[in-house]
Amino acid sequence: YSIPDIPEINLQNIAYTAIVGVLSGFAALLFSRSTHFWSSLFSKNIKYPPLRPFVGGIVLAIAIAGFGFTKFSGLGVPVIVDAFSNQNQWYDFLLKILFTGFTLGSGFKGGEVTPLFFVGATLGSALSAIIPMPIALLAGIGFVAVFSGATHTPIACTVMGMELFGIQPGIFIAIACVIAYFSSGS
């Protein structure tokens, strides 16, 4: 992942970064609540636990194959990479939250880290339509800030962001990670 253009640190760019941090925190909260919602719904309506992922898998297969939502299946690494150079649709991160929350809630295990990166990168990428900062920077900030909000680890995510993207965007990453942490609920 590359962030070639880093804007100057000024009040306007810090304010934009804070907005991305708040939205990233809300996306992390929505991810967590979505997973819990689907898990509760499946537990309540399907008493036999091995049947839950079977039913969930059928619904996912129909949705993904039948309606062409293949972009949201699997880890989504190509979509993450693309988010750093091409603007995503405003709803891409929401659909990834929906599909991942449903998958995990129906009983499938694993696969939370990279989907959170997908959610963050596509959210940041989509925000480039209204926030006048470089798309790669917004995707990178979202990438780590959503993860910070979901895991409640702003310091580790700030360090991870600087490790992934270099030290130059570090101030923007730190601001967004801390704000996402406080915006993502308890």
3D architecture notes:
The chain is mainly α. The protein is 70% helix and 0% strand. It is built from eight helices and no strands. The chain has helices spanning 11-45, 51-67, 77-83, 92-105, 113-127, 135-151, 154-165, 170-183. α1 (11-45) crosses α5 (113-127), α3 runs parallel beside α5 (113-127) and α6 packs across α8. It is elongated and about 55 Å long. The model has no long low-confidence stretch (mean pLDDT 96).
Walk me through the topology.
Blueprint: H1 11-45, H2 51-67, H3 77-83, H4 92-105, H5 113-127, H6 135-151, H7 154-165, H8 170-183
Q: Which tags fit this structure?
A:
elongated; single chain; 186 residues; 8 helices; mainly alpha
Please tell me the overall pLDDT.
96
Task: For the record, give the distance between the C-alpha atoms at the N and C termini, rounded to a whole number.
Answer: 30 Å
Helix content estimate: over 70%
Described by its quaternary structure, the protein is: single chain
What share of residues are in beta strands? Answer: under 5%
Instruction: Tell me the number of helical segments per DSSP (H or I, 4 or more residues long).
Output: 8
Tell me, briefly, the overall form. elongated
| Count of strand segments | 0
Low-pLDDT windows of residues: none
* Rg value: 17 Å
Could you state the order of secondary-structure elements as H and E?
HHHHHHHH
Structural class: mainly alpha
The largest sheet is: none
